[in-house]
Design brief:
The protein is α+β, with helices and mostly antiparallel strands. It contains four helices and 20 strands. A hairpin with a 5-residue loop joins strand 13 and strand 14.
């Protein structure tokens, strides 16, 4: 009887563990990354201002960054993490340590405008079409709300949720940014192997000292300090 009771208890524990694994499972970094539209409560547009963290002076977006051919990207290590995007057959990689710094890259690939966004809080990389009502918007980081990044556009000052692309405040409230492409979070070696013709965003030597807002970059699958950065990036 005791053996049967212990067996049933063990099976119950296994079942609970399985359920927990499903609930709290984190997608593999090799999977495509896209908007998680069901994760954000619907009341963001009515949330009080006190719930929003303003970080406008901490992060700085990048506009039309310089790129180099992947074969010339000597500043990247094989196991460095990148966020890769393919638009109309043109592949481009954004080093994660640069995305973690800028959070927003206002870019253009194959004559298509893009807002390449990244939230360091929830590790979500999403590529949006920044065109709203026929006008291209340029985005910057506003701060955070409920553990997700918030953005604002320079043209109207409206506030947007990075994780959904929804405008929650300002003249554009109610508008939704369309997803322009599916990004892939992987290693530089893997991306270069599968996309040999790719180009890659090039860090500007000495730009902002190469140090991220939290004092580290993601290098080789781990968080590391400035001492592990290539010389071209670690200049101050």
């Amino acid at each position: 009887m005791r053996l049967r009771t212990r067996t049933l208890a063990a099976l119950a524990c296994i079942a609970l563990a399985a359920v927990a694994a499903l609930v709290f499972a984190v997608p593999s970094s090799e999977n495509a990354v896209g908007p998680a539209r069901t994760r954000v409560p619907r009341h963001a547009s009515t949330a009080p201002s006190s719930q929003f963290l303003s970080e406008r002076n901490r992060f700085h977006s990048a506009d039309r960054p310089d790129v180099v051919a992947g074969t010339n990207a000597s500043f990247l290590l094989p196991d460095d993490e990148v966020f890769g995007v393919v638009v109309d057959g043109h592949a481009r990689a954004y080093p994660l340590f640069m995305l973690a710094w800028h959070h927003v890259i206002n870019d253009q690939i194959a004559n298509r405008p893009l807002a390449v966004t990244y939230c360091i809080l929830c590790s979500s990389g999403i590529v949006f079409d920044p065109t709203v009502a026929g006008r291209r918007l340029m985005f910057d980081v506003d701060g955070a709300w409920q553990g997700t990044a918030t953005l604002f556009d320079r043209e109207t000052g409206s506030l947007w949720l990075q994780v959904t692309g929804e405008c929650i405040r300002g003249p554009q409230q109610g508008a939704m940014l369309a997803q322009a492409a599916t990004g892939r979070h992987t290693t530089w070696l893997d991306w270069l192997t599968t996309h040999p013709g790719t180009d890659v965003m090039r860090p500007v030597p000495g730009e902002r000292g190469g140090r991220g807002p939290f004092g580290y970059f993601t290098r080789g699958g781990s968080r590391s300090g400035l001492e592990h950065m290539p010389p071209a990036i670690a200049q101050t």
